[in-house]
């Protein structure tokens, strides 16, 4: 492209010759305002006003939707089956592809030298989570696993085997941890929570059905045994056919080994603390009972 | 025969098609403008050329995209009536497209429904026997003096706020259209030697700025002289830069900005081009916005 484009284009040139733009000269662009449809007025809206000719259609006494004139309607003939039963109690996880994660890291929106948390992903506007719609967090999907080349310490709520393999192949660390809905809401939007002036609550443990998932080493759950996780890493490396890089010899080893405590929501902030945003102060509880409760 | 007529029609259509692309700046031939519409003295000073000797006072702060070049204008003083322009400034190239629209407010129209019209509780005549049509009350919508069935009810508010980016775009469009039609002038500051309104009026007339002038400064405190001078003038008005709106810009013929205002406006209006979406309302503190 050799010619630099003139700012404003030809419209500004045309304006120089036209009269002054005033409040009286303005007009919406053609097609911007469409006239409202008014029933019962004029040749096209009037006469029968779009209702048809006689009968239940014009007189507005048609039966309810699904009625078939007395024959057992379709929606009653078919027997019930619990396809959607309990759908509002099923946890949903927003998918995050490795391709999208690589895109965010490449653009500099996510910092790979710090542990990547759900808060970091939301601050980078990488994805949107709605805790009120039964979202329990984010799940890592292995769509861009062949392009992925970033060494990161990432914490998600669910991950497929291929995604775990892709991250560990590049020397990264992945953990699956559980956030109950209240903690998730706080994690996503920390500033509105701090403005409320409530103490940071402790993160609840997963329910009965999710405990086996978060305790197994294959899924890199946060409740699993570290030695079992090491074994699982070696097994996965053997299965997918890559050499498992040694993390302890890495410069960022300290950062990659950073993990949150089971009851902790934010790195560096413990449950029970109150944050004072206007004055930038942190208040910690001193009562024994409170300390015992929050450290349990 | 059919193929021949098709050829003829398509040629005529092609000619009509080509005429709409003939020239970009030519006005339609049947447009008639009155001769006193434009003040010829106003356009005597063309925009500064590439090789002018005056110093470049201010360069653009923000990073310009490579395919655009900044716009240059003169910078004047308000100190004396006839003085040469001080120097040049560069303005960030602004974007063009939309016509501006405005916020509307209240409508007090309201009618009475048949239940609210005075009277009409009693049945006017028997249901049967009188030979006339059947009616229940004298204030039904069929009757003269009866209530309106589906009329406007009570004060209704037509208030709406346009989206933030649309409002920002409107300001950019207004500024660039003023710039293009040469009604925008840049001044180094709003200091006048005397608090005399006459001095201001003569200054405006001598420089051919126009009938009505809008003076914009960054801070809300203006120098005493200019406050007194514009106090009793209807056509010359002062506003701080945060109060700048499209309505005022279009109402006044000329818009005068100071160098500080230009910097402020560029910073604020360009920020919206490259910002993330808001996660929570802007009133709560944000620490990491660029």
TrEMBL record, chain A:
GO cellular component, one term: mitochondrial large ribosomal subunit
UniProt cross-references to Pfam families, sorted A to Z: Ribosomal_L27A
An MF annotation (GO) of this entry: structural constituent of ribosome
Record's keyword terms, sorted: Mitochondrion, Ribonucleoprotein, Ribosomal protein, Transit peptide
InterPro entries, alphabetized: Ribosomal_uL15, Ribosomal_uL15/eL18, Ribosomal_uL15/eL18_sf, Ribosomal_uL15_bac-type
Region Disordered, residue ranges: 1-70
Gene3D superfamilies for the chain: 3.100.10.10
Localization of this protein: Mitochondrion
UniProt domain Large ribosomal subunit protein uL15/eL18: residue ranges: 95-175
Gene Ontology biological process terms, A to Z: translation
NCBIfam families: rplO_bact
Family, as annotated: Belongs to the universal ribosomal protein uL15 family.
Name listed for the protein in its UniProt record: Large ribosomal subunit protein uL15m
Native source organism of the sequence: Poecilia reticulata (Guppy)
Taxonomic path: Eukaryota, Metazoa, Chordata, Craniata, Vertebrata
Automatic annotation (TrEMBL), chain B:
Superkingdom of source: Eukaryota
Keyword DNA repair recorded: no
Pfam family membership, one: Ribosomal_L4
Keyword presence, RNA-binding: no
InterPro entries tied to this protein: Ribosomal_uL4, Ribosomal_uL4-like, Ribosomal_uL4_dom_sf
GO cellular component terms, A-Z: mitochondrial inner membrane; ribonucleoprotein complex; ribosome
GO biological process: translation
Coiled coil regions, renumbered to chain: none
Sequence segments annotated as region (Disordered): 32-54, 116-151
GO molecular function: structural constituent of ribosome
Ranges annotated as spanning the membrane: none
Extent of Basic and acidic residues compositional bias: 39-48
Keywords: Mitochondrion, Ribonucleoprotein, Ribosomal protein
Subcellular location: Mitochondrion
Family: Belongs to the universal ribosomal protein uL4 family.
PANTHER family xrefs: 50S RIBOSOMAL PROTEIN L4, LARGE RIBOSOMAL SUBUNIT PROTEIN UL4M
Name of this chain's protein: Large ribosomal subunit protein uL4m
Phylogenetic placement of the source organism: Eukaryota, Metazoa, Chordata, Craniata, Vertebrata
């Amino acid at each position: 492209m050799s010619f630099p484009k003139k700012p404003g284009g030809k419209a500004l040139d045309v304006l120089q010759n036209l009269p002054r733009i005033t409040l009286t000269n303005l007009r919406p662009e053609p097609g911007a305002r469409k006239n409202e449809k008014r029933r019962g007025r004029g040749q096209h809206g009037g006469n029968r006003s779009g209702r048809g000719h006689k009968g239940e259609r014009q007189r507005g006494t048609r039966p309810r939707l699904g009625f078939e004139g007395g024959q057992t309607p379709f929606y009653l003939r078919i027997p019930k089956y619990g396809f959607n039963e309990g759908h509002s109690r099923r946890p949903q996880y927003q998918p995050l592809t490795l391709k999208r994660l690589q895109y965010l890291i490449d653009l500099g929106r996510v910092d790979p030298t710090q542990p990547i948390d759900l808060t970091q992903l939301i601050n980078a506007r990488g994805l949107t989570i709605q805790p009120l719609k039964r979202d329990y967090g984010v799940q890592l999907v292995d769509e861009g696993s062949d392009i992925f080349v970033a060494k990161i310490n990432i914490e998600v709520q669910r991950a497929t085997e291929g995604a775990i393999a892709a991250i560990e192949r590049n020397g990264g660390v992945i953990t699956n941890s559980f956030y109950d809905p209240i903690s998730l809401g706080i994690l996503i939007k920390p500033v509105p929570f701090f403005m409320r002036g409530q103490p940071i609550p402790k993160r609840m443990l997963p329910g009965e059905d999710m405990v086996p998932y978060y305790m197994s080493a294959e899924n890199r759950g946060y409740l699993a045994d570290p030695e079992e996780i090491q074994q699982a890493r070696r097994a996965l490396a053997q299965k997918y056919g890559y050499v498992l890089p040694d993390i302890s010899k890495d410069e960022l080893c300290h950062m990659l080994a950073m993990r949150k405590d089971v009851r902790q929501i934010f790195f560096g902030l413990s449950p029970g603390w109150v944050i004072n945003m206007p004055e930038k102060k942190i208040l910690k509880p001193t009562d024994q009972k409170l300390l015992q409760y929050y450290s349990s | 025969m059919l193929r021949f007529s098709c050829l003829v029609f398509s040629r005529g259509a092609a000619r009509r098609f080509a005429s709409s692309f003939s020239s970009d700046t030519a006005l339609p031939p049947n447009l008639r403008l009155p001769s006193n519409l434009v003040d010829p003295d106003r356009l005597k000073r063309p925009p500064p050329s590439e090789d002018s000797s005056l110093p470049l006072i201010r360069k653009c702060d923000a990073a310009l995209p490579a395919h655009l070049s900044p716009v240059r204008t003169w910078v004047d003083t308000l100190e004396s009536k006839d003085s040469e322009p001080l120097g040049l400034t560069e303005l960030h190239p602004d974007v063009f497209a939309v016509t501006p629209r405005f916020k509307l407010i209240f409508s007090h129209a309201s009618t009475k429904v048949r239940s609210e019209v005075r009277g009409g509780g009693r049945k006017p005549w028997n249901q049967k026997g009188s030979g006339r049509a059947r009616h229940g009350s004298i204030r039904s919508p069929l009757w003269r003096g009866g209530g309106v069935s589906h009329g406007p009810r009570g004060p209704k508010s037509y208030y709406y706020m346009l989206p933030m980016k649309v409002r920002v775009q409107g300001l950019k469009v207004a500024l660039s259209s003023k710039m293009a039609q040469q009604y925008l002038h840049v001044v180094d500051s709003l200091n006048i030697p005397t608090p005399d309104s006459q001095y201001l009026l003569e200054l405006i007339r001598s420089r051919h700025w126009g009938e009505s002038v809008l003076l914009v400064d960054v801070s809300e405190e203006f120098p005493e002289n200019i406050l007194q001078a514009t106090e009793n003038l209807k056509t010359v008005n002062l506003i701080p830069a945060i109060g700048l709106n499209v309505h005022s810009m279009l109402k006044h013929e000329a818009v005068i900005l100071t160098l500080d205002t230009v910097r402020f406006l560029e910073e604020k209006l360009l920020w919206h081009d490259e910002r993330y979406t808001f996660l929570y309302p802007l009133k709560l503190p944000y620490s990491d916005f660029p």
